[in-house]
Amino acid sequence: MAKVHVTDLVLRDGHQSLIATRMRTEDMLPICGKLDEAGFWSLEAWGGATFDACVRFLKEDPWERLKKLRRALPNTRINMLLRGQNLLGYRHYADDVTRAFVRKAADNGVDVFRIFDAMNDARNMRVAIEAVKASGKHAQGAISYTVSPVHGIPYFVALARELAEMGVDSIAIKDMAGLLTPYVAHDLVRAIKQAISLPVNTHSHATAGLSTMVHLKAVEAGADIIDCCNSAFSEGASHATTESLVAALQGTEYDTGLSLPLLQEIAAYFREVRKKYWQFEMDAQQVDTRILVSQVPGGMISNLNNQLKEQGALDRMDDVLAEIPRVREDLGYPPLVTPTSQIVGTQAVLNVLTGGRYKSVTNEVKNYLLGRYGKAPGSVNEEVRHLAVGNQEVITCRPADLLSDELDKLRAEAEGLAKTDEDVLTYAMFPDIGRLFLQERAAGTLAPETLLPRPDPSTLSSPAVFAPTEFNITLHGETYHIRIKGTGHGDEAQRPFYVHVDGVAEEVLLETLDEVQVTPGAGGKPRRGAEKAGGQSKARPRPTHAGCVTTAMPGSIVEVKVKAGDKIKAGDAVLVIEAMKMENEIQAPVGGTVVNVHVAKGDAVTPDQALVEIQPE
């Protein structure tokens, strides 16, 4: 009698998908006894964005989270998501760092390593797989599922065979965008099972409303393990509901053997926990079938929404969505998963906002076109490649083959802050925020971001105000959708309002400035109290001549490459700016002498400012 096993995602992908990875360890531990009792094949509880979120927002040590979960789940495998040679960061690491990270993750409690590569380049997965096997743990090779002219069942079966030859213990079909349809899932699982003798695990987001059907057809084709999520954090951008699939398979040859009453008890706990994180909930429809046409994952759409909002260009979303498939084709049809989703999406935004395709090219796209992320699945547009990187040599080897061992260097950089090898690896993953985290820990000043109090109707001054009220406001040419969720009592000067701004929950403190008087005939401007509006950023001169260096979009300065007195040529890089999580080199518009540098590393900048001034020759 066949039995289907379940991996539950509530401790990682569930809350990553629905509340921006904000669940704290303190809210996981009390229910671990019940989770451990349930009998899951594994619990996905680490990796993905959880490491970043712990350090950046929650101010928790991710290694300590893993140790605590390991102690609290003595009978259940802990599963983590690992980005191959990228580990949990956004660049390729040297092999010694990859091996050290896997070893420490295994030592601290990870049993199953789901290893994937954004390009589906198995070379970028090999060292991580070897390290997992050397640690005596379960290596699961993941196929990043996508749809394109070069991706089909033969492509994915060939990749599964390659991973099997590398020694993986199981194969995961990772449908990160929710593009997999039920009958394709059936045929794909059957083809892989016919080609290799390893267990197959299906993973499919519920964005398009198909994931439950996908799992059912996959099970009928021979899938051994299915990924689903407890109902408190399921569906929408998350995954199919665990309880629903358990019920669907109950009494059949695929019975999971899991207890519905126990799963419902777990769900009741997490439903209460979720209320704490209301400010991170997104106003989004439960099912979004647009992805089946655009192939843009829901998480990527929300990122694009935020990026365009920052640029004051939300009205260009349709143009960006139309540009993404063109950029993806130019780059050889990479799957849209971290980090390639950011690479493709940001370049599409640049192509739309800068007034010309590839007029400005991010460093990440340049590195991609130079082969530094791995082999593209399809043919790259050579005209675009030449436009972006000229005649620079394109590598064909595994990118990490060009990296020297770097663990000793990282230890030296983190000296004085890192107390353990785990601390060094935290610094390695995210040098800037990792260093800040270690500094704050040493100073005893670690403090997580504030959880806003949930509006309570019983404390509101007027039930009518609590009734949802919606309106649009326009500021600097950009329109925001405001939805009032409630208001509470404040002091005499301030009163809190709970609102959603374009779907993002915020608490707004409204302050009455009695001293501000509007005088008729004076243009409606306040005579006093204007200083209450807050400080202004440091003024920089506006561009006035051809030698003024500007940026095409708002961002922050990552590196200043020139100083006053330098002689430069037109096209030389003078600045590196981070915009929309991608780095972009800014070139000199003319040759000449640098006479003024108005910015420093870390400065926030906008397109209407002169950042560097060059005296033309």
In short:
The protein is 35% helix and 18% strand. It is an alpha/beta fold.
Please provide a written account of the structure.
This protein is 35% helix and 18% strand. The radius of gyration is 26 Å and the shape is globular. The chain has 22 helices and 20 strands. Strand 10 (478-487) and strand 11 form a beta hairpin. It has an eight-stranded parallel β-barrel, surrounded by six helices. A four-stranded antiparallel β-sheet has the order 9-10-11-12, with no helix packed on it. A four-stranded antiparallel β-sheet has the order 13-20-18-15, with no helix packed on it. It is α/β, with parallel strands linked by helices. The protein starts with a strand and ends with a strand.
Average pLDDT metric = 87
The total count of helices amounts to: 22
**Structural class by helix and strand composition:** alpha/beta
- The helical percent reads 25-40%
How many distinct beta strands? 20
Q: How much strand?
A: 15-25%
How far the N terminus sits from the C terminus, by CA atoms, comes to 82 Å
User: Outline, from the CA principal axes?
Assistant: globular
Largest sheet: 8 strands, parallel, barrel
Strand order of the largest sheet: 1-2-3-4-5-6-7-8
Q: Provide the gyration radius in Å.
A: 26 Å
Regions with little confidence, pLDDT below 50 for 5+ residues: 460-467, 514-537
